[in-house]
Amino acid sequence: MVIINNNSEDAEFDEILERDFTSVFRHGYITVEGVTMPKRFEDLKNNIRNWNVREDDVWICSFPKTGTTWTQEMVWMIMNNLDVVGGQANLGHRSPFLEVSALFDYREFKKENKDFQPPPFIDDSLEFVKHQSLKGPLCLKTHLPWALLPKEIQDNTKSPKIIYVTRNPKDTCISYFNHSRLMEGYRGNFEDYCRLFLAGKLPFAPFWNHVLPFWERRNHPNILFLKYEEMVKDLPAIIRKVADFLEKPLSDDQVEVLSSHLSFESMKKNPAVNYEMVVSLNRKYNLIHCEGSFMRSGKVGDYKAKMSPEVICKFDEWTKEHTEGLDLFD
Ligand code: A3P
Fold first, then answer.
1. Is residue 204 within 8 Å of 179, Cβ to Cβ?
2. Which atom of ligand 1 is nearest to the CA of 62?
3. Which of 25, 156, 215, 235 has the most CB within a 10 Å radius?
4. Is the predicted pLDDT of residue 111 greater than 60, yes or no?
5. Is 222 domain-assigned?
6. Is the pLDDT of residue 199 over 90?
7. Is 3 a member of any domain?
8. Does 6 have pLDDT greater than 70?
């Protein structure tokens, strides 16, 4: 594992990551532009930096567990005239995840297990995106923060539509904990996980370095900034907002149909979006030993049942420190 330490606390976090968050497909972590990333990102970062951005692709950007899948399904449906038949294809095909190969580095495991075949959109995600691009405009998913996006986006040479979604960090942390155990092989406890979250030592963290650069750009004409909590509160209103932003306005009937399609209950049982395929693959090959599901609770305020008052207090202080004077989260 590559360990880059500046102080003893960093060294402790690196130890936790190595002990509890490495696996046959996760070989360690690096820091790129201040962002914690799985080691495999090293091989992808220059290709992404020099990515040939297309104006007519839609980028769905987010920190993990903030409502990305929900937003992707909404955007794909709006861009594809509510094509429920086409929508039965896996979301990973329809709305590819640019850097996902960095998270699941199965190369060694594949050599030793010849019958193991991860889905192509995970196996070599950059190639997959290039291949899908030949077919037309894409609804592209990325968890990369602003600083790691393609140069053409950062310097405004290209300005595709970007939809950023965020969520309050306490619920995000609970959801990320579940996800890291279920999908990415985290074996440690929740307390250590919260410390890693606050210290910015999880993939794509620090959280605020992720959210704030998009928040600062929220009034740019090509950027739409969404909040998970507002989607839960009034989904039809957000659907209308997104459809108008995408210049694909919907009728009232279409908004109603799409709201029902995007309800938590409907998405939980929709195999095209609930990631059960990846969960089953990891279980089948004994790579992950953990119960649960990707579509977990879909609630606001779920942290209250799981976080101790001390941890809540730490999160609140940390949030205040980073968002003082901003109308971002309550
Ligand atoms: P929970 O783990 O809190 O349930 P992402 O797609 O960014 O990984 O985010 C996943 C989170 O969004 C999960 O949160 C998941 O349940 C929630 N989610 C997905 N679809 C949803 C929906 N239709 N309504 C509410 N929450 C949804």
1. no
2. 7
3. 25
4. yes
5. yes
6. yes
7. no
8. no
Site to substitute for ligand 1 among 295, 304, 306, most atoms within 8 A of C-beta: 295
Pocket test for ligand 1, best of 65, 72, 139 (most atoms within 8 A of CB): 65
Q: How far is the CA of 183 from the centre of ligand 1 (A)?
A: 14
Q: Looking at the domain assignment, is residue 328 inside a domain?
A: no
Residues with beta carbon inside 6 Å of ligand 1? 62, 64-70, 171, 175, 178, 232, 262-264, 267, 295-298, 302
How many angstroms is it from 65 CA to the middle of ligand 1? 7
| 330, part of any domain | no
Q: Which residues contact 227 (CB under 8 A, 6 or more apart)?
A: 165, 166, 167, 329
pLDDT of 5 > 70? The answer is: no
pTM, 2 dp: 0.96
| CA 112 to ligand 1 center in whole angstroms | 34
Query: How far does the centroid of ligand 1 lie from the alpha carbon of residue 251, in Å?
Result: 26
How many domains does one find in the chain?
1
CA distances from 251 to 87, 124, 254 (A): 20, 39, 5
For residue 34, give Cα distances in angstroms to 8, 94, 257: 17, 31, 42
Residue 50 predicted with pLDDT over 80 = yes
Ligand 1, atom 24, lies closest to the CA of 264
- What pLDDT, in 10s, does the model give residues 249-288? 999 999 999 999 999 999 999 999 998 888 888 888 888 8
Question: Which domain, by its residues, includes 312?
Answer: 8-323
CATH number at residue 177: 3.40.50.300
